[in-house]
Structure formats: structure tokens, C-alpha cells
Design goal:
By secondary structure, the chain is an alpha/beta fold. It folds into 2 domains: 156 residues, no CATH class; 61 residues, no CATH class. Helices cover 45% and strands 12% of the residues. It has a 6-stranded mixed sheet with strand order 2-1-3-6-5-4, sandwiched between helices. Helix 3 runs parallel beside helix 4. The longest helix has 17 residues.
Length: 230
């Protein structure tokens, strides 16, 4: 995937890409937001958090070298994961990201809140957005964000999925992947089983008025349409 004159949303992998493509369709931001994982830029690379951090450096360098750099916007969504499982955790994740963007001329202290992070450039290039799943404060992942955004009509079914997963003996997955197993089970019980995370958006299974859902949407709008949402 070549760098485009427009908006890029960099995510960890294919499941995340499919999910955020559906989110971005709903936002109807122009120019189009191109959702991509690291392997979309380099088929020889791996997806995942560290690949996202490496690709962020490459993209920012290209933005800085391009005459159209001020027409491009970049946002990054990565999981906090868990500090005790070599996934860095929230604190180390934001520290690493801040160090990367600092080397490209961005201020190391972002504008931050539970509504996402915005890094300002010292020489006027567009802001860089960062959202650390699930809520820019705690360890976890995209599935933990989904758990907090489930539509009330789906809550009973999801609670049952949680119960079933918790009763599995033995559990083959790691405890840190409990949320992944719960979300996958819940999605497998929908009218059209077998779809990925994107189906939660496409089939309107989430509560768009839930605070964490609204926060993510507002952050995306702030990154990609700063002149409107300043």
C-alpha cells in the first residue's frame, strides 16, 4: 500500500482493520480514511504492536519529506496489552510511542484524556493521534473496549457467553485472552455466525451512545477534521 494524500489509520492487524473500516464508514470523513496494518505497507513485515511502532516512524518521515504532508493525517490505534505478559502494558506503550514521535519533532507530552491522545508538532505539521485500547488508561485490548460498548439489547446474550467461557474446563487460552474468547463466543451466536469483529459494527450490536464509544468517535473526528472539531 503506497502512502496516499489523505488520512491513514494504522492498526495492529487484519481483525482491527476490518473493525475500523466499518467505524470509519459511519463517520463519512472526507478525504477517505485508509485503515491499514503494517503488512499492508510491507508484505514481508509482521503485524502487531511493535510493527505498528516501526511503521509509525516510516510514515512520519514520509509525511515530513512530502510537499503534501500538511494534507495528511495519521492516527494510531494499539492495544495496551498487559505489562506482566511482555505486552508492555499501558504505561510502557505510551512511553514508547511518545519517544518515537519525539524523534520526528513532536512534543513528548500529548494532549491527553480518556478521549485519546493528540501529539503536536513543533514545526507545524499535522497532529498525530494515538488511542491505546481499551480506554487510554488501563491495560487491555480492543475486545475490552467492545465489552464496554455492547448494546443493551445484546447484554443478556453476552453475559451468557461470559458464563459459558468461564465454565470451560480446561481453558486452552491464556487468562489475558479471556475477553477475546468472550467476544468471539458472543459473535458466534449472532444471526450470521463466523464473522470477525467488524460484524459488531455492521450488525449494529454496539451502543453508539455509550461514553467510551462516543469518546473514540470524537477522537477520530478531532484527528481527521481538526478545523471543524477544534
Amino acid at each position: 500500500m503506497a502512502i496516499v494524500n489523505g488520512n491513514i489509520l494504522l492498526v495492529e492487524g487484519e481483525a482491527d482493520r476490518g473493525f475500523f473500516e466499518q467505524v470509519c464508514k459511519l463517520l463519512q470523513i472526507a478525504p477517505e480514511i485508509h485503515v491499514a496494518a503494517p503488512r499492508d505497507f510491507d508484505p514481508k513485515s509482521r503485524n502487531g504492536k511493535q510493527a505498528v511502532l516501526q511503521q509509525t516512524t516510516i510514515i512520519l518521515k514520509q509525511f515530513a519529506d512530502s510537499e503534501a504532508g500538511n494534507q495528511r493525517h495519521l492516527a494510531v490505534v494499539i492495544d495496551a496489552d498487559y505489562a506482566d505478559e511482555r505486552g508492555l502494558g499501558f504505561t510502557e506503550t505510551i512511553r514508547q510511542f511518545a519517544e518515537i514521535v519525539k524523534q520526528q519533532g513532536y512534543e513528548i507530552d500529548p494532549i491527553n484524556s480518556n478521549n485519546g491522545y493528540i501529539f503536536k508538532h513543533t514545526d507545524g505539521l499535522p497532529d498525530i493521534g494515538l488511542w491505546i485500547m481499551p480506554n487510554n488508561a488501563n491495560d487491555g485490548m480492543l475486545e475490552d473496549w467492545l465489552k464496554q460498548s455492547i448494546h443493551p439489547d445484546e447484554q443478556e446474550l453476552f453475559n451468557y457467553a461470559q458464563t459459558i467461557v468461564s465454565q470451560l474446563t480446561p481453558q486452552k487460552f491464556k487468562p489475558i485472552h479471556q475477553s477475546k474468547a468472550e467476544i468471539a463466543t458472543w459473535l458466534a451466536w449472532q444471526k450470521q455466525p463466523g464473522h470477525g469483529l467488524y460484524w459488531a459494527i455492521k450488525d449494529q450490536l454496539l451502543d453508539v451512545k455509550q461514553p467510551l464509544y462516543e469518546a473514540l468517535v470524537n477522537w477520530l473526528k478531532l484527528v481527521y477534521t481538526p478545523e471543524i472539531n477544534a
